[in-house]
């Protein structure tokens, strides 16, 4: 089904709610299906909800239909020297998927890239949503300005709900200028303990770091820790020089200007793409990252990793039959992004699971929207 507008979408959902038909919500189809195996009765395509409906560069505000291709959003903003602050990743390389990522899919999955440590995640830039809940009711929350403090904050709730609470039809964002220049400070051949300590020192500095990642040695390439500084040229040069001086105590350091490719590869986890092994996304306290990675290497010699967000986000590639959660007793959250045989999302503590279920009962009491996707 490809509804043309919100009213038609609401009618489709209302009919499905009355008959108990299960609906799969499809944006660009670039992110493979997560969750438990569910037989869907129909697929709702969001192709009919495409286009930028409002863009005010002076107000740093953009509003678009949920089915709008991310590339269209990016190009529209680029023409005015602006960008989405949270740097959403493109899953196609990692997942070997096709299609075109949509802005609604970005919001539904709360996709956020390396700049999250400085600018916040997708939900932090989201200022308004329109959606249709599981009862076929059209709901609007938030607005088109950055300051909005009225009512329940359903905007934040919808980001990361994977379409299980409602079908997004329109999203509104605050946007920011594209930095004039960037510099990448690289710490060469550091081990993971040194890397995490260096990233922590950088993130605790006054130099406004917008990226902090660690790439372990792989396929003959030496390990490296990369730190990003962005902004106006004179400011970036000063801060990059000072930061390089600060982390030089951890090892050999170099500085490269405007190395955008390495951050695109980090954002899209390019180094772990290829073959058919499972991909896990693990969130931990940065200080726990070295111990986690050491235990992972002991448990699975073929494991390969990439650290982002100062060590708080670890991408892992392991054989498909390796149960990362059970083997490592993860002190955080582990989501399987590619692979099957395991529950996609980390089990919730009982109290949070009850809250989550109550929310679903309110928004989608019959369970017609993406059932099974989050367990």
TrEMBL record:
For the keyword Nucleotide-binding, the answer is: no
Kindly state which keywords UniProt assigns to this record, in alphabetical order.
Answer: FAD, Flavoprotein
Record has Flavoprotein as a keyword: yes
Organism domain of life: Bacteria
Q: Please state every residue range assigned to the domain named FAD-binding PCMH-type.
A: 1-178
Report any Pfam family annotated for this entry: FAD_binding_4
The record, for InterPro entries, names: FAD-bd_PCMH, FAD-bd_PCMH-like_sf, FAD-bd_PCMH_sub2, FAD-linked_Oxase-like_C, Oxid_FAD_bind_N
PANTHER family assigned to the protein according to its UniProt record, in alphabetical order? D-LACTATE DEHYDROGENASE (PTHR11748), GLYCOLATE OXIDASE SUBUNIT GLCE (PTHR11748:SF103)
Q: What is this protein called?
A: 2-hydroxy-acid oxidase
